[in-house]
Design goal:
13% strand, 843 residues, single chain, 5-stranded antiparallel β-sheet, alpha/beta
Length: 843
């Protein structure tokens, strides 16, 4: 290596989270994000510009912090791979004059508006507010001191806490006090906010593992004692589940059916152990006594289940392991490979498991030398002394009401006691045959229904047990008229018990007749949900390849219009990477959703093991390059490079449109240039990717925001860079109309230091202009509304008010995008031009 100066690239920032001392590098992957003392010192060296051989820096840092040399090297390599280092002296892009005003603080608790992103430049870390005012220039030592105030604390306690840490190059007490005076003068201190997150924290699986496990353990102990007192020699049947946050519905259903099979005769031979939650240690302890262990394999459980299955078999080869569920392969060759790869698996069940499992137990002899007694059990493959035996298929259960309810039998009362999630079926089957899907191996089948009394009783069980998240597991909820009655029942339970608070639902794929009515019912009682139309694709070639037939697009337009007028949230499911699709068709799908002004859930296509897409002939015909359970990244219609481009566009669309970073600007651009919203998003993405030095804030936003949803230093810097892009690249006029569009965009971006209501005095009436835009769309000009709406510059001045009733700026900043998506949260603030906000919890 030669002597040179190495710098941090423009736009590199150091993030302060909402926890004391919690600093991290949002630009870096995984554990590299952690801002340890040695890593901070390395970053600080590059921030000042490190002159010399990098090997010398490695040696100096390893010695100074008593760190392993390989750890220092690895961190620097990660900085390089992430594009965070340059040998060109960065241009001064981040400007502003810091006020020299000093201030004082009292003895009460104070805090700062965290999370905060501090931009690196010339050895300092720059602290901007939402409006782009440079509040402070900080040294690394000062950043550490500032981070103490991420949580409410008094100055005296903060000083003591800071000095106790004995940081390298730490400030002394007087220097700390001088910093406090500057912070007070800059106005960064605030009184602690009192946000009640108690209910939100209970949502979506935040269940205490120890509590639910203790309840299950107590029940199992009482059960074991009762079995021992009976004196019966019973074979244990043990369900395997490690998910504490959700009652294992599939395991409960097969267990309940077996327990009641033919008048309960299996109870005379088997001990159905109510151990519906257990870790590996508990299962291994149970495995010492020969028994039957049952697994329900899904994409998110199959790896863990196979590991547990191997452990159980290793303890005692006499144990019988039975695997079913959607990720247990059904296709013959895949099933043979499944047995070959997993020698601990004894039986694989395909299709519905309730009758098959009971029949299997009825014929099973656990003491026999092999499993040949199962040769007449339809719906299974099993390991015999002569190899793998594949029996014929089993018909689906005609009358679902012959399946007892595990909820009503009390099998899941322990989960109910801790308010874990519940999954409830009102029907089974799907009349469609989409090749990417495997809905319980019941696609292209008649829809069979559970009696409403049973459905209502299970829903009431959930509500009485204060279940936060009651999922409806139907393939097409809203397809049947009675689904409206079920929605009304859920709403009544919400009024009576206060639960459920969220109802995840898969809405009807090709029928929207009852959709608005159901969403209105839920919205009226503050149940967290949104309307969802399952488009998957609107490309005719793709639809043909996946055996999908959507209703006419105009019907979706009508639904979107109804939802907008009723101010109800609406989203569309779009799948990226379907066979038959291309980069162009995916972009067109996104644009059509933008034309309907609805939120998009853009999901990557996964090759489900038992889907028609995994059938060998189909795989060959459409050039599918993926193993079962993997994301499909290459097919005959697109290359791996195409997929990477689609994925980058998918993320850009999520950030720019769904989370609204450029939605209002994009509409202005379309009217001025004719460029569609998606083409604009992709152009900005591509430019920032190819020329990050020219567009550092945009580039860093695209690289980091998915993992750390927070302002990139300041949204004002982002908007300023977008404005410069529009003028220099798209050659838009730098005039009052552009200023209006940028001001509206900036005002709709959340930041923790914002206060509401925010009142904008606009040079042009953006609200009136957008209203005409939406009317033009609804009158048939979705594709060419820009030719039928006046320019924004033709409108007079107006006032725009933005509110934050859902406290987005306090609740939803600094989290990962996947967390916000899971909670059905977006960054939608409230205004006359905003989309209906979803995820607004009623506290």
């Amino acid at each position: 290596m030669t002597n040179q100066v190495t710098y941090l690239v423009p736009g590199f920032y150091l993030a302060i989270s909402e926890k004391q001392h919690a600093l991290h590098f949002a630009q870096l992957p995984g554990m590299m994000k952690r801002a340890t003392p040695v890593r901070l010192a390395i970053v600080d060296s590059f921030n000042h510009g490190f002159e010399g051989d990098i090997e010398d820096l490695v040696d100096a840092m390893a010695k100074r912090f008593d760190a392993k040399r390989i750890a220092v090297v690895t961190f620097i390599e990660n900085l390089e791979m992430a594009g965070c280092l340059t040998d060109s002296k960065p241009v001064h892009r981040f400007l502003g004059a810091v006020s020299e005003k000093l201030g004082t603080v009292g003895s009460d608790d104070i805090t700062i508006a965290a999370p905060i992103s501090l931009l690196s430049q010339d050895g300092n870390f720059l602290w901007y507010n939402h409006d782009g005012v440079l509040l402070m220039e900080l040294t690394l030592a000062e950043v550490r001191a500032v981070s103490v105030f991420a949580e409410a604390i008094t100055v005296e306690t903060a000083r003591t806490l800071y000095l106790e840490q004995q940081y390298p190059d730490a400030m002394n007490s007087s220097q700390f006090d001088e910093l406090i005076s500057r912070m007070a003068g800059a106005g960064v201190f605030m009184a602690p906010l009192h946000i009640d997150n108690s209910m939100e924290k209970k949502l979506f699986g935040n269940v205490d593992y120890a509590e639910v496990q203790a309840l299950v353990d107590a029940r199992v102990a009482a059960h074991d004692e009762k079995v021992a007192d009976s004196g019966k020699d019973l074979v244990p049947v043990i369900p395997v589940n490690m998910d504490k946050g959700m009652a294992p519905a599939s395991l409960g259903l097969v267990t309940a059916y077996a327990m009641e099979y033919e008048g309960g005769k299996l109870r005379e031979r088997y001990d159905f152990v109510p151990m519906f939650l257990a870790d590996e240690a508990r299962l291994v302890e149970r495995a010492a006594t020969p028994g039957v262990f049952i697994f329900s394999n899904y994409l998110w459980t199959v790896d863990t289940n196979l590991k547990l299955s191997a452990a159980i078999k290793a303890v005692n080869p006499a144990n019988i392991t039975i695997h079913g569920g959607p990720s247990t392969p059904s296709y013959e060759k895949d099933c043979e490979m499944f047995f070959a790869d997993n020698p601990h698996v004894d039986v694989a069940v395909r299709g519905e498991g309730e009758h098959t499992f009971a029949d299997l137990l009825d014929k099973l002899d656990i003491h026999a030398a092999d499993l040949d007694v199962l040769k007449n059990v339809p719906g299974i493959s099993f390991r015999s002394s002569g190899g793998i035996v594949r029996n014929g298929d089993r018909d689906r259960i005609a009358d679902l009401n012959t399946i007892p309810s595990p909820y009503l039998m009390g099998l899941f009362d322990e989960f109910g006691s801790v308010r874990a999630g519940a999954i409830i079926e009102s029907n089974r089957g799907c009349p469609y045959g989409c090749t990417f899907c495997d809905w319980g191996s019941a696609t292209l089948s008649k829809v069979r229904r559970f009696d409403l009394d049973r459905v209502y009783a299970e829903l009431e069980w959930s509500a009485k047990h204060q279940i936060e998240d009651a999922s409806i597991a139907d393939a097409n909820f809203g397809m049947l008229e009675r689904d409206v009655d079920i929605a009304l029942k859920i709403a009544d339970l919400r009024k009576t018990y206060g639960f459920p608070r969220s109802v995840p639902i898969n809405y009807a794929k090709n029928q929207v007749r009852y959709l608005r009515q159901i969403i209105e019912i839920f919205a009226n009682v503050n149940i967290l949900t949104e309307g969802l139309v399952s488009l998957q694709s609107m490309d005719e070639t793709t639809l043909k390849v996946i055996d999908r037939s959507n209703i006419k697009l105009e019907k979706y337009h009508e639904v979107a219009r109804e939802f907008r007028r009723a101010k109800l949230p609406l989203a569309a499911d779009i799948m990226m990477g379907l066979p038959g699709s291309t980069r162009t068709s995916f972009s067109t799908d996104l644009q059509k959703c933008a034309d309907m002004d609805i939120r998009v859930r853009a999901n990557k296509t996964t090759l489900l093991p038992n889907s028609p897409m995994n059938e060998p002939g189909y795989r060959k015909e459409h050039g599918i390059v993926a193993k079962p359970g993997e994301i499909l990244m290459e097919a005959a219609s697109y290359t791996r490079e195409d997929w990477e481009e689609m994925d980058q566009l998918r993320l850009a669309y999520y950030l720019f449109d769904v989370y609204g970073l450029l939605r209002y600007v994009a509409r202005y651009v379309r009217r001025e240039t004719g460029m569609g919203e998606v083409a604009f998003y992709d152009k900005v993405r591509s430019s920032a990717s190819r020329h990050p030095d020219d567009w550092p804030v945009i580039s860093k936003t695209l690289k980091t925001l998915e993992g750390y949803m927070a302002p990139p230093g300041s949204w004002s810097l982002f908007i300023a860079e977008i404005g410069r892009y529009l003028i220099e690249v798209l050659e838009l006029a730098d005039d009052s109309a552009l200023r209006t569009a940028l001001a509206v965009q900036h005002a709709h971006l959340p930041a923790p230091d914002r206060t509401f209501p925010a009142v904008l005095e606009l040079e042009h009436d953006y609200v009136a202009w957008q209203d005409l835009l939406l009317i033009a769309r609804e009158e048939g000009h979705r594709d060419d509304w820009q030719d039928h709406v006046p320019r924004l510059c033709e409108f007079g001045p107006a006032t725009l008010v933005i509110e934050d009733p859902s406290e987005v700026c306090q609740r939803d900043i600094g989290k990962a995008k996947v967390v916000l998506d899971l909670h059905l949260h977006t960054w939608e603030l409230e205004s006359p031009v905003a989309r209906p906000r979803l995820g607004a919890l009623a506290l």
